[in-house]
Amino acid sequence: DRILDAGYELNLYTSAEFSFPELDKTVFARVPKSLLHEGKAPERWRRDRENVDAILSAIERRDASKPFFTFMFFESPHAPYTFPPECALTKPYVADLNYLTMDLHKDIGAIKNSYINACRHLDTQLDRIFVFLREKQLLESTIVIVTGDHGEEFMEKGRWGHHSAYTEEQIRVPLILRLPGVAPAEIDRMTSHLDLPATILPRLGMKTPAEDYSLGVDLLGGPPRADLAVSGWTEVVYVDDAYKAVFPVKSYNMAKREVTTREDAPADKSAFLSSRRDRVGEFLKDLRRFQR
C-alpha cells in the first residue's frame, strides 16, 4: 500500500502463479492484474530466465522520473529442481524427478545435488540483475532484497522437501538485504520475514511507528528478538532460542501443542509451559493484533 500510494512504477513477475500462494489476494490485492506477469515456458528454469529478461527490459523502459518496484518469484530451486545443462556442477543428480518411481532413501543424495544445481542457476539470474543495476548506475540507489519463502530438507530429520514439519532445515531461509549507504554486515541473531517491513518502510519515508503496522523489528537498529512466529496453512509455531511449540491456527489450545527443542529433539511440554507461560501468552496475543 505504501509503495502504491507513493506512485512507484510496478512490475511483478512469478515463475509459478500469483494465485498460489495467494499473493494476488493478499500483498498484491490492490495491484492491477495487468501488472502481474506469470511465466509460461514449460521448464521452470526457462521461466526464470524469461522473467529476468522482462524485468531488465521493464527497468530499462521505465519512467525515470518515478521510483520503481519490481518483484520476482523464482521457481527453478523448487522441486523438481530444474536447471540447464551448464549449471550441472554437482553430480550425480536426478535429471527427471519422478515422484512415482523414485526411491527416496536411495536417491536423496542425487536429489539434493539437483537442488544445488538449481540454486546455481538461480545465482546466475541474480547475477544478471545485480550486473544490470550496476551498469545502469542504479545499484547505489536501489534497495535489493533476496530471500525465500521456506527452506528445504533432504532427510536430515527424516523428511524431504518442505511444509511437512517445522525443522530447522525447512524453516530457515537466506536473507540478503542491500541498502544504499549501509556498510556490509552480518546479522547472526534470530530474525524473521516480519522484520522486513519494519526495516524497509522507515527508509521509504514511513513516519508511523513500526509497531503500529508490523510485528517485526528493524534489523539495523531494533532490539534483538526474544521469539518469532513461523506459520503454515493450519498451524502457527512459537520459536525462541531453546524451544519450538506448534499450535493449531483455529484453536490456540495449550493442551494441543507439540513441543521440541530448537534443534528439533523431543522436549518436555510441562517444562516448556512452566518457563514460557507468560511469554507464549503475549506471543499469541500479538498474533491477533492485525486480524480482521
Describe this structure in words.
- It is built from 6 helices and 11 strands.
- It has 292 residues and is of the alpha+beta class.
- It folds into 2 domains: 2-188, Alkaline Phosphatase, subunit A, CATH 3.40.720; 228-287, no CATH class.
- The protein has a 4-stranded antiparallel β-sheet. A 3-stranded parallel β-sheet has the order 2-1-3, covered by helices on one side. A two-stranded antiparallel ribbon has the order 4-7.
- A hairpin with a 2-residue loop joins strand 9 (235-240) and strand 10.
- Helix 2 packs parallel to helix 3.
- It starts with a helix and ends in a 5-residue tail after the last helix.
Task: Put the structure in a nutshell.
The chain has helices at residues 2-5, 44-61, 104-135, 168-171, 195-200, 269-287, and strands spanning 9-14, 36-38, 68-73, 144-147, 153-154, 160-161, 175-178, 227-231, 235-240, 243-248, 258-261. It contains six helices and eleven strands.
- Count of discrete alpha- or pi-helical segments spanning 4 or more residues: 6
CATH architectural arrangement of the largest domain? 3-Layer(aba) Sandwich
C-alpha Rg, in Å? Answer: 21 Å
**Into which percentage range does the β-strand content fall?**
15-25%
Q: Low-confidence runs (pLDDT<50, min 5 residues)?
A: none
Structural class: alpha+beta
Average per-residue pLDDT, rounded, comes to: 95
Shape: globular
Number of beta-strand segments: 11
List the helices and strands in order.
HEEHEHEEEHEHEEEEH
What is the fourth-level CATH superfamily of the largest domain? Alkaline Phosphatase, subunit A
In which order are the strands of the major sheet placed?
8-9-10-11
Q: Domains counted in the coordinates: how many?
A: 2
CATH class of the largest domain: Alpha Beta
End-to-end gap: 17 Å
Helical residue percent band: 25-40%
**Could you give a short account of the major beta sheet?**
4 strands, antiparallel
